[in-house]
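Retro notes
What went well: the complex prediction finally ran end to end.
Inputs used:
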Amino acid sequence: MTGPHLVVALEPTPAPAVVGYVADLVDAGIPVGLVLVDEAAVARFRDSGAVPARPHLDVLALVPDEKSLWLPRLLSGRLRRLYSAVVRPWLLGRRWRALDTRAASAERVVAADVAAITLVWHLGRRHPHVVATTALEPPAALRRTS
Amino acid sequence: MARERAPRLLYLAFFFPPSRGSGVYRARATANHLARQGWDVTVLTAPTYFVRDLIGSFDEALAATVDPRIRIERPPMRYYALEHDVRRFSRFRATLPVVARRLHRWGLAHVFPEKYWSWGLACLARGLRLHARRRFDVIVATGNPFASFATAWLLNRLTGVPYVLDYRDSWTLDQFQDRPAYPPGHPAWRWENRVLSRAAAVTFVNGAQRDWHAERYPHVAARMQVVPNGLDEELLGEPAGRPPRESPVRFTFLGTVIPGQPIDELAEAFRLARQEPDLVGSRIAIYGYLGYFPSSERALRQRLARADDVFEYRGPVPKPQVATVYQETDVLIFMTSGGRYVTTGKIFEYMGTGLPIVSVHAPDVAACEVLQGHPLWFNPGGLDVPSVAKALVEAARTARTMTVEQQRAARAHAARYSRTRVLEPFEHLLRDLAGRAPTTDGVMTTDGTP
């Protein structure tokens, strides 16, 4: 058995590889906290049924509703794309405090997509004992026992 | 009279001991041979962090087999596509991850289409600095990665030092699928044409690869040659002759197990062959790493475990102990993936043992070129299970009855491919380029036959 994993995926919809990774961890009995960008993303994930609900899988939203943030609402076209590339990861990364307690007790914090890197970088710096990674591969302990 | 200085070689070999990647043995043998022939060899290779920490693919015992006269330098590189530890990301990448990704992709599309390009640039800077201190006479670049080819080309443009490109693997040919590796218009084609055009010589591990490239780049065809992989005799020692085998015949596969190898076909054929009295009680001992990278180990271990009535996995063997494994073997299994463009260096070691060899691979792999004429080669001509089973039975019978003369003849066949013999013409060629050598001996046969 291995410790809790915190998987952060902040694109509007998690990629199939991320979903498969979470499903593998859950199947192996590893406690997983899956952090999605907002409540809408959480609802879409639950509705998809890609990963069956289990007591040791906790799916949570980083912000209540990303569309309600004031800055992106003002932008469109190229400025909106610039916002997504430059400002969004930084803005979401500032929310690391919301995950601070969970990260402290995790064995591994995973940035599952590019938008999650800034946030996981903050958590990794704050908790040096936690593995902070972008690798979506089962941890060594899991490989050894299977 | 002043003594003439040793010819000086810059060798760009990303995979070099202690790395244990597939191309390491050729690079190691080439550098060692040239050092023994009096060359002043400088190797530019991968950073230690890459070999040990990132890919975890290293073998300290192998590093000890590198000639101490060889100078090894490890230029740094960027790890954008390789580094997963978020704490090691630069502040730029950590705070602007989307921008960093776009820049990385732009570099691949417009600068050099390979994730090792930053290592190539660092080699360029290091090579220029070393050259400024003491002039290099020749540059040899071995690929993959092919950033080494671009570095050699740039060094040549800046310094005029001639360079040789050594294709251990092909770049624009997918050698496992037998088709171009990139779509038309991909920057890899432009780069390959560019680096080939100015190369003083281009070497390949087999004739099929040379022919494929000669057809696509006819203006360079005359400079293309074959330098086959060879037998590292010092690793085998002097194999002892063995008496005929009475008890269960011991089958061995020694090498890296990789996903594309016909493991399932071999297991099925072995079960069929075991119905014959000559194989009663036999199993196949598997020695070696599972995959080149730790990430593939789990799946391969499971695959072998599914046929644990046939296979017994015994783990990796340090190079110095390879000879002992062969001593405890009666029949060798030559299992390989790929087609006519793929040569595995392991076959030379296999031949050097003087043991019966059973081929388990597609019918037209390039290794068949060197096995032709081997007196103890059992070739079923493909992966048809009954044919493979028949070859296994015949090899077991031979192991029970073979004479010392048969073993000697098998080793004599292998001796044609000793590293010293296959590298000798290559060394002469380099001396020609360095302006140091008799020119007449430097001509290599186009098929690489020693």
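What we learned: DSSP finds 18 helices and 15 strands in chain B.
What to try next: split runs per interface for comparison.
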